[in-house]
Amino acid sequence: MEFQEIGDNYQDFFKILPQDWQEVIRPLWKDYKKSANIYALLDEKQLVAGGIVFRTAPPNRTEFEIAVGEEYVVKGYHYIGFLFVDPKRRNEALGTRWLSALKSHFPEQGFWLTIEEQVLETFYVKNGFVRVSESADVGAPEWMFIYEPILKII
């Protein structure tokens, strides 16, 4: 399994995303690709999982992400968005492998993200993220998580 930044081959990643995610990111990618990178897990050159790492604020932020997430943008944390595993390759721990590879690739980098499905909380906590906030919106709840690297003191 290989972890790599996929550069101009972003269409390969977009193809595995659900249609509604594609509709969000495709029109914005031209503007965001200057401040974001797509990292993928490749299995025999086949893209099986990937995500976008935004070095600035992500697109289409909700009021919750603006209010609570701005602190992490200012601190230099990178936002993880559109993390997705090819449905044909689910239950192989590829999401965990992707996050582990990302953290290894950027060992001193903090990350933040939001989820809209609370069932994903267990996955992110298992991968070293901590829930720091929850929106008050009952109709469309969101949860914010951060990952802070363990810095070695010499």
UniProtKB/TrEMBL annotation:
<keyword id="KW-0808">Transferase</keyword>
<dbReference type="InterPro" id="IPR000182">
    <property type="entry name" value="GNAT_dom"/>
</dbReference>
<protein>
    <submittedName>
        <fullName>GNAT family N-acetyltransferase</fullName>
        <ecNumber>2.3.1.-</ecNumber>
    </submittedName>
</protein>
<dbReference type="GO" id="GO:0016746">
    <property type="term" value="F:acyltransferase activity"/>
</dbReference>
<feature type="domain" description="N-acetyltransferase">
    <location>
        <begin position="1"/>
        <end position="152"/>
    </location>
</feature>
<dbReference type="Pfam" id="PF00583">
    <property type="entry name" value="Acetyltransf_1"/>
</dbReference>
<keyword id="KW-0012">Acyltransferase</keyword>
<dbReference type="InterPro" id="IPR016181">
    <property type="entry name" value="Acyl_CoA_acyltransferase"/>
</dbReference>
